[in-house]
Design goal:
It is a single chain. The protein is of the alpha+beta class. 54% of the residues lie in helices and 18% in strands. The chain is built from 26 helices and 22 strands. The radius of gyration is 33 Å and the shape is elongated.
Amino acid sequence: MLYPQRFTQFTREHADTVAALLCGLLLFLGWFALHLGAFGLAFLLLPAAYVIGGYESAREGLTTLFKEKELDVDLLMIVAAIGAASLGLWRREYHLIIDGAILILIFAISGALEGYAMARTERSIRSLMSLTPDTARVLHQGREEEVSITQLKVGDEIVVKPGELIPTDGIILSGYSTLNQAAITGESLPVEKTVGAEVFAGTLNGYGALQIKVHKPAQSSLIQRVIRLVEQAQTEAPPSQEFIDRFERGYAKVIVVAGLLLAILPPFLWGWDWETTIYRALTFLVVASPCALMAAIMPTLLSGIANGARQGILFKNGAQLEKIGKVRAIAFDKTGTLTTGQLQVFQVIPTSEYTQIDVLKTAASVESSSEHPIGKAIVQAAGNLNWVGAIEVQAIPGQGIVGIAQEQQIIVGNAVFVQEYLANLPEELREMAQSLEEEGKTVVWVAKNPTPNPSPQARRGAGFEVMGVIAIADEVRSQAAATITRLKKLGIEQIVMLTGDNAETAHSVAKSVGIDRVYAQLLPEDKLDMIRHLQQQYQTVAMVGDGINDAPALAQASVGIAMGISGSDVALETADIVLMADRLEKIAVAMHLGRRSQLIVKQNIVVALGFIMLLLVGNFLGNINLPIGVIGHEGSTVLVTLSGLRLLK
């Protein structure tokens, strides 16, 4: 029973693809039967190909005709195909039935590709929904009880244990912890939270247990607002799509009206006999079919997509390949996009009595017992240095860490914490630390006391001495500055940074990579508003990001670009383009591909329309018959298809 179920599910999820494959198979078998002279079998197979391949186009065309009172290319294709088949039966030129089936097959394949693109929105929303737990621990009369998130009410008190996701927005009633908010707000460092602070659903709790009061309905949480924003932004049809729809319908109207006039007026105006008139009218419908026009676009875009894939650029649909070539402004997220998202030691400044190695080894001895990202960065920087792990290590949340190593008490922490043990900090070192903090770096001080096990209430200046400071920073990607320079040379009019991080850090990173405009401390809806503002000024805007907080902006942007390795699942699903190896320089390559695709598409459209015009004039003057019209029509289709394949280079 398992295999029939899987087959049924596959056909349901890929109905358009199955229809196109069956149409192609029946078309081939019908052609082969005609070739063998088995006309009875051919007349069973080919109508089935027409019905299976053309059902969806016929349904959409008739729906548009009756409900919207509009004609579109789908209906025109069906009319042209049936006209070719009817003419083939009337004149017993059965190859014309094959030509009609080919028209239907081309549109069936196009419909299947469009269906896959439209399924992206639903996948994006499902990925967002998976970011929050389904249940929460609610306190009832001092006892914990698991309830569904949907059952939470304002005023409920919930418990979140270390390492768990926050289930809904709320206010901390008791407890202290660090929360990783990078995916929601874009902050590169975990944020320390204590009583009275607001926490967001979908953020990751650190080492402390928290008791949280629900202060708003679960459906009003930040992550739920992100979901709604993504849904809304992705359902808004871009102007280019509306233009294409109008063009198709206008083209169909012109061809249908012209076909009717050609089938009625010639006997009265030029004295044609009715057989010649009908013959010319049906030939007109075949040669006027927009297959060459449609082939002018898709092979080009598919070739560009294949070219990009070889270079680590994943275009999710052909429309985005076109759009990226038109981008006039681009917005970058900071954490995980322009930076690696991984904290690293930026600089070690020792006092005159010590070396950088001394400072790193001493700090690593106590930080090796810490789970804090800053501690991990210091231990990683110490690498293979010969240091010994400390004992009696104690972390003071939000301040620092202490321990004993080689009979010396070690202190690593911020300036305020270290000053509890030292009367004064070296003035020169203090000025350097302040300068580093103004650049957005996180500075930790390292001090030691040779006296083992001193009293926790040690007096200021009682044997402690400063060894130096360590600056921690989120490393800027090596190719970021070169990428910004290349984008400016390509003529991008505006490059901005949108980040949830603090202003000092944001401006420091922006200055190092060459970005002039910075917008910091933004929530997801703020980023979305900025993208909309840029679109009002520059129309076609790209957004590059990697986190959940970037999802609404990625969806709203004309082109959303996500980092493939560091990017969250939501960002990858929402974005239109994915940089598979996180190589920022590929953005310029993608734009070059987009511009080449635009040029080739325009050339192909000119060739396709030129052939159609020549065939129409030839048909009107009586210089071509239907077989020549079909050859010219299909020849132009092959020509523009081969032209589109140039983008594979």
